[in-house]
């Protein structure tokens, strides 16, 4: 692409329950009292109030990396290598991997979602996650992301096909941002207006661009500490708040 640097916020979603497959794979590889975090990278930290799931790709191989004696991160190898040069690991340039897991293995695990109105969310599959961007883990905010909304509907319609339970995917989507003309659920509204009903729709890029432009430049927060503030202002305030509580780390690539 280009030389543009993306400034992401990596959210620390602590695993509260592993899927059974993962429990078997990890047994003996990490201490019993370890904290493992799945770490989605986002460009929109102010939307974390509306998280409803965590997406992994069933076809990507992830690692579990030791960031301190008790803390471990689940992410792609590539993200770990990048973070090793951004001061996240104790030793510069080193990213000790203690286990390897396929995205497929961790589906059905439950993680804590910092700041979200739902305390815990399920890990579910998203085929379109790119291995060479962010951490390979994406947090789902169906109210404001057309990608996340279409995948949410797809998963709930075809739960068996995707090897999940329908009840893992909450369908009462939480409003978090109000926009003039699109109400408080911009992603579902745009998808309905543009008749987008699958994650493969050719219209999806256009919906994403609009959701981003309108949400970011004209949106106003409806929830949380910065309720009432414009999204443009809330973005950095929420980011700083997540960094201050050690629920997030800054990441550039
Ligand atoms: B965003 P950019 Cl509410 N593969 O976070 C595919 N998508 C990925 C990814 C990967 N490996 N890593 C991160 N992403 C998603 C929130 C959000 C995001 C909202 C609205 C728009 C939006 C909740 N999901 O992004 O290509 C993440 O989703 C619109 C672009 O680097 C991340 O921010 O510009 C965004 O894509 C990063 O995409």
Automatic annotation (TrEMBL):
Included stretch of the parent chain: 290 to 542 of 1143
Family as reported in the entry's similarity comment: Belongs to the class-I aminoacyl-tRNA synthetase family.
Protein name (record): leucine--tRNA ligase
């Amino acid at each position: 692409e280009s030389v543009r640097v993306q400034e992401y916020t990596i959210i620390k979603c602590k695993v509260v329950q592993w899927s059974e497959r993962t429990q078997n794979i990890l047994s003996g590889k990490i201490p019993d009292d370890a904290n493992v975090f799945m770490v989605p990278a986002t460009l929109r930290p102010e939307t974390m109030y509306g998280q409803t799931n965590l997406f992994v790709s069933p076809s990507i191989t992830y690692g579990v990396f030791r960031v301190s004696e008790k803390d471990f991160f689940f992410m792609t190898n590539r993200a770990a290598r990048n973070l090793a040069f951004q001061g996240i690991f104790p030793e510069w340039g080193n990213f000790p991997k203690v286990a390897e897991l396929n995205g497929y293995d961790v589906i059905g695990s439950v993680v804590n979602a910092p700041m979200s109105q739902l305390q815990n969310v399920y890990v579910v599959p998203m085929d379109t996650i790119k291995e060479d961007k962010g951490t390979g883990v994406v947090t789902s905010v169906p109210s404001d992301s057309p990608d996340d909304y279409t995948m949410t509907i797809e998963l709930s319609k075809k739960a068996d096909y995707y090897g999940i339970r329908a009840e893992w995917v909450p369908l009462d989507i939480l409003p978090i941002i109000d926009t003039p003309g699109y109400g408080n659920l911009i992603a579902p509204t745009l998808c309905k207006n543009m008749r987008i009903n699958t994650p493969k729709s050719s219209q999806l890029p256009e919906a994403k661009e609009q959701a981003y432009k309108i949400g970011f430049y004209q949106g106003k927060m409806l929830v949380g500490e910065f309720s009432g503030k414009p999204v443009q202002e809330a973005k950095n305030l929420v980011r700083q708040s997540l960094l201050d509580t050690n629920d997030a780390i800054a990441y550039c690539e």
